[in-house]
Design goal:
2 domains; three-stranded mixed β-sheet
């Protein structure tokens, strides 16, 4: 049981979250296995509320905002994992076919400052995604505390993005040349490898009943 007090915390919120993540990995085996069912885990969000879409029975996605927080109507029906993955993969291939035409050599020049900002952006994206998922799994009182930190992270991320826009460096770190051949072998790759490739270029995928919206990192 957790409760909010008026006194200063004994440990920092960052340490508390790190401990909770470790405990999740040790005790919530069902949750740990869910990521093996789809490479969209962690990327796919509910278009209505923005919370993560969770895997159910290894076949379908379900809105965690509805299941855990009861703040969302969720997505009607049973969105199939396979159908969502096929749709996102098709968009991923199309996107890189367009890039290949514009950059046939696959080369890109990015300043050291832009690379540093991109790494910072990736870290912030990861922290934001972790907090969003954590908020969906906690009580309303704890969720309020985490939401305040989430707002600060989002504001910091926006500042980093603005800096990148000025440098013209908000592009994927991995070269086009090395990624495009991987997309041809993508269907046969392990789930975790697919997730790593996709997360290099996709910030998030929003799901509605009738469509998916991909938000790219570039």
């Amino acid at each position: 049981m957790l409760s909010i007090g008026l006194h200063d915390g004994v440990i920092s919120s960052e340490l508390w979250l790190d401990v909770q993540r470790k405990l999740d990995g040790n005790t919530q085996l069902k949750k740990g296995r869910s990521g093996t069912y789809s490479w969209l885990t962690g990327l796919l969000k509910c278009g209505r509320c923005g919370y993560a879409m969770r895997v159910v029975s290894g076949e379908y996605f379900y809105c965690s905002g509805k299941a855990n927080h009861h703040i969302c109507e969720g997505i009607s029906g049973k969105p199939e994992i396979k159908a969502a993955e096929q749709a996102v993969y098709a968009e991923l291939k199309q996107k890189f076919n367009e890039i290949r035409e514009l950059h046939p050599t696959g080369k890109q020049q990015v300043s050291p400052k832009a690379n540093k900002l991109k790494m910072q952006l990736e870290t912030l994206n990861s922290q934001i995604d972790n907090l969003v998922d954590k908020i969906a799994e906690t009580s309303a009182a704890i969720g309020k505390v985490l939401e305040e930190k989430l707002e600060r992270l989002i504001a910091e991320r926006e500042g980093v993005r603005q800096e990148l826009d000025k440098l013209g460096g908000d592009k994927p770190r991995q070269s086009y040349e090395s990624v495009i051949p991987l997309l041809d072998e993508f269907p046969d790759m392990p789930t975790e490898v697919k997730r790593q490739i996709a997360s290099q270029f996709i910030a998030k995928v929003l799901m509605w009943e009738d469509r998916l919206e991909i938000q790219w990192k570039f």
